From TrEMBL:
It is a multi-pass membrane protein. InterPro entries: Alkaline_phosphatase_core_sf, OpgB/LTA_synthase_biosynth, Sulfatase_N. It is found in: Cell membrane. The lineage of its organism: Bacteria, Pseudomonadati, Pseudomonadota, Alphaproteobacteria, Hyphomicrobiales. The chain crosses the membrane at residues 36-51, 58-77, 141-158. This is Capsular polysaccharide biosynthesis protein. Residues 221-442 form the Sulfatase N-terminal domain.
């Protein structure tokens, strides 16, 4: 016991020094008594987690220190690219990394930068096991009780954290989402654990489905989420003809305030599909798909189905990524056309090209009965933009601009195609295009342009509107799109 207490005390002290001196907090670390207690509790829980596997105090202490150091390094690296510290919801995405390594800046497991440290760590752990004696009791019964008791205790804590009475206590420690303040107040490990418990506890009921005004909606409503899309002129790129189309043909266009920079597509996607601001999601705002799993009564797809629309989700990537297939079915999409349907589609770089995706979208609209609500997510311009992605183009920004030109061509083709189809069928149609977030490029740092992308709303089959610029948040765009399903007004505007 003495050895355990000494090793634990030293490990917690080193972890505290690491966070105070080189941690990822943007303000000074708090050492107030309660904050310090929560901070140390976070370290202790990490230490106990590792201790249950070895029952070697010094090994567990060292592993705890290494874990905290890794969390700090990863969090600082993430902040430099995305502008946020490490989140509890990031760990829910870990299974995606080995399945889709091309989507991340992390090298594959067989890369020497990963494989060598992993092998050295395993070798050092084996050596340490042979050197440090276990503190497990020698007697059989106490040994069995210890081996079963500590894992059971930790498991019970995990199960109890989202439930009363422990959940009420955690809610007092973390009353509302304030990530930067909480990382400075109680440290990264305690914030990760506390926010996980609060997110699992839920407590933020979804709103009732809005009552849409009477009257028929547009015959076809198409919403296209453009991967990493901003006006390339904002990065010093060439003029994109599609942006001139926004300004001259769209009923409404402008800058779209989105909930994240460089990643977290699901936040913008959720905001537009539900019309819910992130503030209404509580601790689920950081990954609304994990917290609510698509249970959204305000989803545009649900509202459309209730109005008799066919609902289609179109995305040329794997069904399991972000659990999109399950989420979109819960959102109310009856039909999903995803990665397997694009096996023969032309690629531009590693992903299905936007121009080819636009052609498939128009084919789906032509082939399906109306009324139809279609939500499409593009993939061509997904990062990271690394050497070897495009022949003869290794500069990240040059790669991005090459892809965004194709995105512009797709938008031009969609506007022309839907306009012609609306005239041919004598139907009314709405097309909405928007960027999910700005790209994570060296020239596009967190906070770039006030964390805005571009959006536009086009209307076909009726008298042309005078284009107007209205800068709005992503959730307001989702509420505005309800007008296309209800068509109670001659104008698509922000509905609260």
């Amino acid at each position: 016991m003495t050895t355990f207490l000494i090793a634990t005390g030293l490990a917690l002290a080193v972890c505290l020094a690491l966070e105070v001196l080189v941690g990822d907090a943007i303000t000074r670390a708090s050492l107030a008594p309660r904050d310090l207690g929560l901070r140390l509790t976070g370290y202790l829980l990490i230490l106990l987690f590792w201790f249950e596997f070895s029952w070697r105090p010094w090994l567990a202490g060292l592993t705890c220190v290494i874990t905290v150091a890794i969390l700090i390094v990863v969090s600082r690296a993430k902040r430099s690219v995305i502008g946020e510290p490490l989140l509890f919801s990031d760990f829910a995405l870990l299974p995606q990394v080995p399945r889709h390594p091309q989507l991340y800046y992390i090298p594959p497991l067989w890369d020497p930068r990963i494989s060598v440290p992993v092998l050295l760590t395993l070798a050092a752990t084996v050596l340490w096991y042979r050197t440090e004696p276990s503190v497990l009791p020698d007697s059989t019964l106490p040994r069995i009780l210890a081996l079963l008791g500590l894992p059971l205790l930790l498991w019970l804590m995990v199960k109890a954290a989202p439930r009363p009475p422990l959940s009420r206590l955690i809610a007092r420690w973390f009353p509302r989402p304030d990530l930067e303040a909480d990382v400075a107040r109680v440290g990264l490990p305690a914030s990760l654990l506390g926010y996980t418990a609060r997110a699992l506890a839920g407590g933020e009921p979804g709103p009732e489905a809005p009552t849409l005004p009477p009257g028929p909606g547009d015959d076809v409503v198409v919403v296209v989420q453009l991967e990493s899309f901003i006006d390339p002129e904002r990065l010093g790129g060439a003029t994109l003809p599609a942006m001139e189309l926004f300004r001259t043909r769209a009923a409404q266009y402008g800058r779209l305030q989105v909930p994240a920079h460089g990643a977290y597509t699901m936040r913008s996607e959720h905001a537009v599909l539900t019309g819910r601001p992130s503030e209404s999601l509580g601790f689920g705002r950081y990954d609304p798909y994990t917290s609510r799993s698509g249970d959204e009564p305000t989803s545009l797809a649900r509202l459309a189905r209730a109005r008799g629309y066919a609902t289609l989700f179109l995305h040329p990537f794997h069904r399991d990524f972000f659990r999109r297939a399950k989420i979109m079915e819960a959102f109310g999409f009856a039909d999903l056309v995803m990665g397997e349907a694009f096996a023969e589609a032309p690629r531009v770089g590693p992903y299905v090209g936007d121009v080819a995706l636009g052609e498939r979208l128009l084919a789906e609209v032509r082939a399906r009965p109306t009324p139809l609500f279609l939500f499409c997510v593009t993939m061509e311009n997904h990062g990271p933009w690394k050497p070897g992605r495009l022949p003869g183009l290794d500069d990240p920004q040059a790669q991005y601009l090459h892809h965004v030109a194709n995105t512009g061509r797709m938008v031009e083709a969609l506007v022309a195609g839907l306009d012609a189809l609306a005239r041919e069928r004598r139907q009314t149609m709405t097309l909405c295009v928007f960027g999910d977030h700005a790209p994570s490029l060296p020239t596009c740092k967190p906070g770039f342009g006030g964390r805005t992308t571009e959006y536009a709303l086009f209307r076909f089959g009726r008298a042309s509107d005078t284009p107007r610029r209205v800068d709005i948040p992503a959730d307001a765009l989702g509420r505005a799109l309800r007008g296309a399903l209800a068509a109670a007004s001659a104008d698509i505007s922000v509905r609260t």
